[in-house]
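User: Fold this, then the next.

Assistant: Folding the first:
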Amino acid sequence: MMRLAAVLVLAALGIRQEPAKELDWLLVYYMSYDNNLDHCGPVILDGLEEGAKEGRIAVTVLADFRDKDGLKRFTLTPAGRREETLATDNSASEEVLEEYLAWASKTHPARRYALVFLNHGGDLDDMSLDEQPGAGISKQWLSARRVGPILKKFRDGVGGKVELVFLQQCGRGSVDNLYNFRGAGAAVMASQTSVGAPNTYYAPTLKWLAANPESGGVELARRIMEDDEHYVNYVCVRGVELAELPKRLDAAIEPLLAGGSLTMPRRPKACFGGEREGETNYDLLGWLAAAYADNGRKPEELAGFQSWVKEKLIARHQFRSEARRKPAWCGVSLFVPRTPELLRKYKDYPLYEAGKLDEMWKSMTQ
């Protein structure tokens, strides 16, 4: 009623209330840098501002720094930079994330969206470290298994127009993690290894996007890979295929389970984490091939899954340096819980609940 009354008053005064004009692209950044990445924030904001000077695009950034003055919400457009301060300092809150996404889509409606999460990546479920979330708050990470459904809800709310979800954080390219983001975007981009900072793609990629607004999520991911210099390898997977992951993975696991007790393969080299800490990721296809070999299974029974990963799931995989000797990695990894304690820690993880992966771990760890 109040909004209707306001519209009537404006109409009586002869003032037309124009609806927000739809952008070609809105890039929504979540930069939780209340940690040792704080110094990268200004560099990133400058790069994004430079890139947003052209075309019908805009960038929003919810930023958390080491000060305790509240989260900063930036809007970057061809008109310049606008900054607001929020009442909360907690970027490890899924509720804060959800409110930010709602504000972004309402304030800047667009034909296409990209959602980007900057920060450290920690254990399997950890993303976006906030070392000082506020007095009396102990939770310092966003939970990937909770963030995924929030992003899917956002995508549904904007008519499915989320082209890319970019997890610009270390080690988020495991299938266990990526499965959390099924339905969240047409494409999901991450890395199975560590990712550097502050990264270099912001200005050139946004200028390219302004000149190529009809591009989709896979094309945007490819451009980021070409313009960035601070990474080892990136992968872009097709969002529609993530829903197929449990069924496809089960087909690769069943031949292992059919042969009785299993031993953990020892040959693969970790691509993220450390075995001393226990939370370690290995290249998905490399680890499975080693598991087949060490447990006497026929390698041809893995061929169908290998083809699906390379030809259907992965849209693009790229190493940064072509001159450097590259590991024989496919681009996505697998979290390997080497102890019963770690398996119990994640017993209700979505990918475990959806398929037979936990059965294989039980056979190898008990």
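Now the next one, as you asked:
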Amino acid sequence: MSPIRPWLVVCALSLAIGGEQSAPAAPPTLDAGRAYGYLQKICRIGRRPSGSPGMSEQQTVLAEHFTKLGAQVGYQSFDAADPVSGTPVRMSNLIVTWHPKMNERVLIACHYDTRPFPDRDRRNPRGLFVGANDGASGVALLMELGNHMTDLQVSRGVDFVFFDGEELVYQDQGKYFLGSTYFATQYRDAPPPYRYVAGVLLDMVGDSSLDLFPEKTSVRLAPGVTQSIWATAKKLKIREFHQTPRHEINDDHVPLNEIARIPTCDVIDFDYPYWHTTMDVPSRCSGESLVKVGRVLLRWLTLPPEQQTPQQ
């Protein structure tokens, strides 16, 4: 992801939270140890930039994982130019489909590529970057959620979308959001037989000191979805979801909102001190943090449509 100028924007607006509504049945229990194990497994692969052997290995791991859980797994492939050499890089968004017969759907997305190098690391900007929080945390959370999706009583179909090419960037050379831009453009220009009514993007959700604030662009472009997610967290008394917006971030949710017109909010902890450094490793993350975000998502997915995507 890339921050909007300035790098950190503080917004003084408060997010309106809807009135009290009856809560659905309690969602399944998530396993923090298992979720953290998934994060460790992904990080053990090592570097996972677009087009790399690490990315290929990760794709195999995810395809096998979700297929065994009963999901449909497919790839949306395209080529993009390497920002240094100009040679084509094969990229693939991975799409995991649950309840495929439902024509009204929501997507839960993350990026699964890592930045090629930890170029914000002052000591070792060309060192090993495994992206435990910035990349693997969203992947691990979706892997854990997958254990519960087949039997989850949802109001709409659900797709997990893993975006490639979120940051194939060397220093400041390259482009962001290649996978999500391709996905959004294809959705707009070659509409599928189903319709996405909402989306949630997960980015850096594993910090052991988790703090999640409504993101300003999400509040502006997808107010109903953002309100619903944070209202759900409030009802579940998950205190890591704060109610006052803080950051304004360019991320994969922007093309989903602006190109595909899918109202999508970004759930991101942008106060993570190890962003794009060699210190973004599993020990800086927590399975408990992943589970707290997962609890909100599972409850949100079971809400009636009018509560899941309230009109604004």
